[in-house]
Amino acid sequence: MDFLFFFNSLIPSWTSVSLLLGFFSYLGIAGSILPGKLVPGANLADGTRLHYRCNGLLSLLLLVGLLVIGAWVDVVSLTAISDRGLELLSTTFIFSVIVTLLLYVAGCKSNDRSASLKPHITGNIIDDWWFGIQLNPNFLGVDLKFFFVRAGMMGWLLINLSVLAKSIQDSNLSQSMILYQIFCVIYIMDYFFYEEYMTSTWDIIAERLGFMLVFGDLVWIPFTFSIQGWWLMSNKVELTTAAVVANCCVFVIGYLVFRGANKQKHDFKKNPKALIWGQSPKVIGGKLLVSGYWGIARHCNYLGDLLLALSFSLPCGISSPVPYFYPIYLLILLIWRERRDEARCAEKYKEVWAEYRKTVPWRILPYVY
């Protein structure tokens, strides 16, 4: 019976389809018409560069405001997402498959020779569908890669807020749920406040748009990063004052390392002479930064990310491994990505990279790894 209920819960409905399409329609319209800083992307292989309208924070605040007003006048249910979690999961997954198949077909038929739209076809259908064919496909003038990243992060917050509303409705709001929600809200709002930093990440600059990125943005991020909230809806956790303080310390340290490292990297790319911790930056080979956080570990931003992920799970206590899926998965992913980064940089920078490794010997965690 439980399996049958689970299976039936996964079947998409017109309501879940309407919710998803309404969300995407809002993002497309708001992202195109709301004011925002126009940020130039990285230089592409043909010398061109895309520009991104970074109005994600305004789009998010407006959307939340509209939902609150809609709930107040009783035309919107704040628990609509939490009531249809599995249904929305399967609907979003099917949408990801359909969209990436269309991207594959459009890429194969494209004759565009620009760096952002030139097809990269290997001949392996699965490989081309999974990794994508075009670097920056667009639809009605909307850059789809940037759009899907924004949708995933906003979706994560909307799921969390709906779970919070459900907890309040069921009189099941706990200290752990409040702590988890606060951490996630700060992290996601910070992401959109510094949204322009996303334009200089590897995914935006170099990865083609295929199922891997679309599924990661639309399904993996919102539905797996919110596991802690779903778990806390049906599990009561009592935290000691010491546990709460320790959890807050992990979050603050993680945030300072994560945001500080990424800000230093972004500022250095924009202005190689920008001061870091009040001093002129030290550089190896003219390109590799060894000041600030980047002089402590070669991938110290990953350390901040891992601490933040851990802080999202700690409010759930230690009675179950389920809420720790996200930090465990992230640890595996980032170690794998760090190895890829190391191999790519070694090939790109050659002897300069070898010198950099001697200067900064630690990969992620100083004196440990």
Automatic annotation (TrEMBL):
<keyword id="KW-0756">Sterol biosynthesis</keyword>
<dbReference type="GO" id="GO:0005789">
    <property type="term" value="C:endoplasmic reticulum membrane"/>
</dbReference>
<dbReference type="GO" id="GO:0050613">
    <property type="term" value="F:Delta14-sterol reductase activity"/>
</dbReference>
<dbReference type="InterPro" id="IPR001171">
    <property type="entry name" value="ERG24_DHCR-like"/>
</dbReference>
<keyword id="KW-1207">Sterol metabolism</keyword>
<feature type="transmembrane region" description="Helical">
    <location>
        <begin position="239"/>
        <end position="258"/>
    </location>
</feature>
<comment type="pathway">
    <text>Steroid biosynthesis.</text>
</comment>
<feature type="transmembrane region" description="Helical">
    <location>
        <begin position="147"/>
        <end position="165"/>
    </location>
</feature>
<feature type="transmembrane region" description="Helical">
    <location>
        <begin position="177"/>
        <end position="194"/>
    </location>
</feature>
<dbReference type="GO" id="GO:0016126">
    <property type="term" value="P:sterol biosynthetic process"/>
</dbReference>
<comment type="similarity">
    <text>Belongs to the ERG4/ERG24 family.</text>
</comment>
<feature type="transmembrane region" description="Helical">
    <location>
        <begin position="312"/>
        <end position="336"/>
    </location>
</feature>
<dbReference type="Pfam" id="PF01222">
    <property type="entry name" value="ERG4_ERG24"/>
</dbReference>
<keyword id="KW-0472">Membrane</keyword>
<feature type="transmembrane region" description="Helical">
    <location>
        <begin position="56"/>
        <end position="76"/>
    </location>
</feature>
<feature type="transmembrane region" description="Helical">
    <location>
        <begin position="209"/>
        <end position="232"/>
    </location>
</feature>
<keyword id="KW-0444">Lipid biosynthesis</keyword>
<keyword id="KW-0521">NADP</keyword>
<feature type="transmembrane region" description="Helical">
    <location>
        <begin position="88"/>
        <end position="107"/>
    </location>
</feature>
<keyword id="KW-1133">Transmembrane helix</keyword>
<protein>
    <recommendedName>
        <fullName>Delta(14)-sterol reductase</fullName>
        <ecNumber>1.3.1.70</ecNumber>
    </recommendedName>
</protein>
<keyword id="KW-0560">Oxidoreductase</keyword>
<keyword id="KW-0752">Steroid biosynthesis</keyword>
<feature type="transmembrane region" description="Helical">
    <location>
        <begin position="12"/>
        <end position="36"/>
    </location>
</feature>
<dbReference type="InterPro" id="IPR018083">
    <property type="entry name" value="Sterol_reductase_CS"/>
</dbReference>
<keyword id="KW-0443">Lipid metabolism</keyword>
<keyword id="KW-0812">Transmembrane</keyword>
<keyword id="KW-0753">Steroid metabolism</keyword>
